[in-house]
Design brief:
Elements lengths: L1 E5 L4 E5 L5 E5 L2 E5 L3 E4 L1 E5 L3 E7 L4 E5 L2 E5 L4 E8 L7 E3 L5 E6 L7 E8 L1 E3 L3 E11 L5 E12 L2 H7 L3 H18 L3 H7 L10 H9 L2 E13 L1 H109 L4 H15 L1
Antiparallel strand pairs: 1-4, 2-3, 2-5, 6-9, 7-8, 7-10, 11-14, 12-13, 15-16, 16-17
């Protein structure tokens, strides 16, 4: 026999000698006779926690903190204190679901390990990942490492849960398949000339189709360059140097030829200008000679015209004098006629005398 005390705020199970069990709450002082007292564990959850309570009948209950619960083995299977989830903007949680995706290996942003990224809060904001596709062979058996950056965004959580367990693994596998398909169809030099096309989503058909099927959208893929073996790179550098020298020589030759063509065109233009100038001089001389000849002819014409006018005036004056004389003679003859003088005899005598004088 012994005295047992249950403090205020405590609970205990009293096991009777007949097999019955009863719950006792404090404050209380018990005299135990052929019985046993077992205090119950008090489990507490603070304001950012909650209690996950599993009952013996199989159902589960959650109590948001701050709260307390006594672990009663008669009705409880377990009571656990768990942290509450704080969801920021663009975050979501799937109840009773834990995600396990490929995650970045330690000390590497481009290598991924299955099951490395375990979480319960799903980030729905746009995100990106770096990835290196290793050991990609070209058509002429050159071994390359191709570096890309994938930008993606989740669009449909329900579709993602139904269609995939690890979308990152899907991205990596499809991206690798697209890059290998693009590269293996080209020679090393042809790949170098067209590698910028890896920035175009049109060359990532499998990645785009798979992302849509699992509820994601790949918005962009950035080609970050490639890496070849040192020996291959050295050969390529030598080839590039040779091509560059040839191109520079070709461009220098073209520039020289262009300069010669330019000089020749200038010379032809200068000769043409000189020829045009000489031709213009001849034309000017001809025009001047023509002007002089026309002026000389005009002067001669004016002189002849003046002579003709003088002769004409002289003849007109003579004719006028003759006309006056004739008029005077006619008047004289009319007077003689009026005086009854024989005009025939008079004219004969006049002409005979005139001839005699001459």
């Amino acid at each position: 026999m012994v005295w047992e005390v249950i403090e205020e705020g405590e609970q205990a199970l009293l096991y009777h000698f007949n097999g019955k069990i009863s719950l006792r709450k404090g404050p209380k002082r018990l005299w135990l006779v052929a019985s046993k007292l077992k205090k119950l564990e008090k489990i507490t959850a603070h304001h950012n926690e909650y209690l996950a309570i599993e009952y013996l009948d199989g159902h589960t209950d959650h109590k948001q903190g701050p709260c307390t619960e006594f672990m009663n083995p008669m009705i409880h299977l377990s009571i656990q204190t768990k942290q509450c989830y704080c969801l920021d903007t663009n975050c979501a949680i799937v109840v009773v679901h834990k995600f396990s995706w490929h995650g970045e290996e330690e000390n590497s942003k481009v290598k991924y390990e299955a099951g490395k990224n375990n979480f319960e809060i799903l980030n729905c904001a746009p995100d990106q990942l770096y990835y290196n596709v290793d050991e990609v062979r070209t058509a002429d058996d050159a071994l390359l490492r191709i570096k890309v950056m994938i930008f993606y965004e989740i669009k449909d959580i329900k579709k993602m849960l139904n269609e995939t367990k690890d979308p990152i693994a899907d991205f990596l596998n499809c991206c690798k398949s697209d890059v290998i398909g693009f590269t293996t169809a080209k020679t090393y030099l042809n790949f170098i000339e067209t590698c910028h096309l890896l920035n175009d989503l049109k060359n990532y058909t499998r990645l785009v189709e798979r992302s849509e099927k699992i509820g994601f959208e790949v918005t962009k893929v950035v080609f970050r360059g490639y890496f070849a073996s040192p020996k291959l790179q050295s050969l390529h550098d030598t080839s590039v140097k040779t091509r560059t020298d040839l191109r520079l020589n070709y461009e220098a030759e073209i520039q020289q030829q262009n300069q010669l063509d330019y000089n020749l065109k200038n010379e032809i233009s200068r000769l043409q200008m000189e020829q045009d100038l000489e031709y213009q001089k001849v034309l000017n001389q001809l025009e001047l000679s023509k002007a002089r000849l026309m002026e000389s002819n005009r002067i001669l014409f004016e002189e002849e015209k003046a002579k003709i006018e003088i002769n004409t005036k002289s003849k007109l004056k003579s004719l006028e004098n003759l006309a006056r004389k004739n008029e005077q003679k006619l008047e004289h003859l009319e007077k003689l006629n009026q005086m009854n003088i024989d005009l025939t005899e008079h004219l004969f005598n006049y002409h005979f005398l005139h001839l005699f004088i001459i």
